[in-house]
Specification:
Blueprint: H1 10-29, H2 37-51, E1 57-61, H3 67-71, E2 76-81, H4 84-93, E3 98-101, E4 114-120, H5 129-136, E5 140-151, H6 156-164, H7 179-188, E6 191-199, H8 208-212, E7 226-233, E8 243-249, H9 256-262, E9 270-276, H10 283-293, E10 299-303, H11 309-319, E11 324-327, H12 339-347, E12 353-357, H13 370-387, E13 399-402, H14 403-411, H15 424-433, E14 438-442, H16 457-476
């Protein structure tokens, strides 16, 4: 359907008519012709299968013959394209997807919402990109992710040569937008970029090494064919939410009273979930006593059957009732008085996963040993590069996220496996895999006043190095 809105001017209408005629011819040509583009499209499908978890509500704008949206296994898949020839073939090839012949500049006939909205090689062909992006807002929830990919200007000549040799589908004049152009248009249309990256260095046979590894490294990444941008609707403050503060307590009897006395009231309700794990002191009995003494603060105690902090935190999260889940280390090296800052950051939408950072402000003299400090700095740089978002401190215990996002992380845990005894990386990797906005929040790190650390410098340092390699394989080089 051609856009008939009076605001869509004469030139825009003629532009779209020319595009429709062109893509109708391309669809007909593909009935009997196969160029070299199939390797490019196979790699695109692999990338989107990583970016889009199965069984979500997915809309693709500019879906062509529908192969991409069908391959991401949506629970509800909707593809739109303005070419009737493309849509006819999409319906025939992928009957499980709902297809509509609609112009991207007017999506009023589409009913949402959607979890993921895809514009794959679409924006460079649009008359008014900002307007098309504005049409999407009605179809979003606060958690919707918008994923765009588009050709790099560097490939204009190679693509023209391939088209001239009849090796690639012909293109009309393109917008040739840069990632900076897209970032600006997203802001104007009410969206916020989360991260951008490049993909596909060799869109031909035998491109595995180049497309999986080299394209992620300098200087090859600047030569890539496709720019990708992941965005979300611009954040809006949510109504007051309830909070669950989860504390893994092992040999921490001397800190339990302070936890109850110092955790502030936040949101509509603040509960404290304590998980005691195989303590050699009287931590369990102390928690029982303090819960009885602080009835004004809802407190819940669970005894851990498994081992390790990760296991304890998962038990606490599973038992929590709050809209927001917070981790507080029982050693109180991160002051409980800082938790309202985490609450404010997440309810105002500044981030969807708030990560505490100990490495910005000067810390108390004995709070962290020098080698640990250097190691944390090095690992933070490695993980920032791997995840495509700044992560300045990977092992600060204080992390805050929405319970609904934790459920998605837990449901998708099989992608990474049960590899993390701390629990920090399970959450960070899971949030990154869901394309959540990760925000670092600096805190002042304090010296432990009771007990001793459970961290082994060399043993856990080696484990961190293994996690870097693991993350590279499962997140970066996919």
């Amino acid at each position: 359907m051609l856009n008939e809105n009076p605001l869509f001017d004469y030139h825009g209408t003629n532009y779209q008519k020319g595009r429709i005629a062109h893509w109708n011819l391309v669809a007909q040509k593909r009935d009997a012709w196969r160029g070299l583009g199939r390797w490019y499209h196979r790699r695109l499908i692999e990338i989107y299968q990583f970016l889009v978890s199965p069984h979500q509500r997915v809309l693709e704008i500019g879906c062509g013959m529908g192969s991409l949206i069908a391959q991401v296994q949506p629970s509800r898949g909707v593809g739109v394209d303005f070419s009737p020839e493309m849509i006819a073939r999409a319906k025939q090839r992928h009957p499980g997807i709902e297809y509509h012949q609609i112009d991207a500049h007017d999506l009023s006939e589409i009913e949402g919402p959607f979890d993921v909205i895809i514009l794959s090689d679409t924006v460079n062909d649009l008359w008014d990109v900002q307007r098309a992006l504005e049409q999407i807002h009605r179809l979003c929830t606060p958690a919707t992710r918008l994923i765009l990919n588009f050709y790099s200007h560097l490939w204009q000549l190679p693509l023209a040569l391939a088209q001239g040799l009849n090796l690639a589908a012909p293109l009309l004049d393109q917008n040739w937008l840069t990632p900076e152009d897209i970032d600006n248009m997203l802001r104007l249309a009410g969206f916020e970029s989360i991260r951008s990256f490049t993909e596909i260095l060799w869109p031909l046979p035998l491109g595995g090494l180049a497309n999986r590894y080299l394209v992620k490294l300098w200087p090859f990444r600047d030569l890539a064919l496709s720019n990708f941008v992941v965005a979300r609707p611009a954040p809006r403050p949510r109504q007051q939410a309830s909070v669950s503060v989860v504390v893994a307590a092992r040999n921490e009897a001397g800190n339990i009273r302070s936890i109850f006395e110092r955790v502030p009231k936040m949101g509509s309700l603040t509960e404290i979930i304590l998980v005691e794990g195989h303590s050699r002191d009287d931590t369990y009995e102390t928690i029982v006593r303090e819960i009885a003494l602080h009835r004004e603060t809802p407190g819940h105690l669970f005894r851990q059957n498994g081992v390790g902090k990760a296991d304890a935190i998962r038990l606490g999260f599973d038992q929590a009732s709050g809209d927001i889940l917070m981790i507080l280390d029982a050693d109180l090296t991160v002051p409980p008085e800082d938790l309202p800052r985490f609450y404010e950051a997440i309810v105002t939408g500044k981030g969807e996963f708030i990560n505490g950072v100990r490495l910005v402000y000067p810390m108390e003299k004995q709070a962290m040993r020098t080698l640990n400090f250097i190691g944390n700095k090095l690992f933070s740089m490695a993980f920032s590069w791997l995840l495509g978002q700044p992560i300045k401190d990977t092992l600060c215990g204080t992390k805050v996220l929405w319970r609904e996002d934790y459920r998605r992380i837990a449901a998708n845990r099989s992608y990474f496996g049960d590899f993390d005894p701390f629990g920090d990386f399970d959450l960070i990797f899971g949030a990154a895999k869901l394309n959540r906005k990760i925000v670092d929040l600096p805190i002042r790190y304090r010296e432990r006043t009771y007990g001793t650390t459970n961290i082994s410098r060399w043993k856990h340092g080696w484990l961190l190095l293994r996690m870097v390699l693991f993350a590279a394989r499962r997140i970066k080089f996919v």
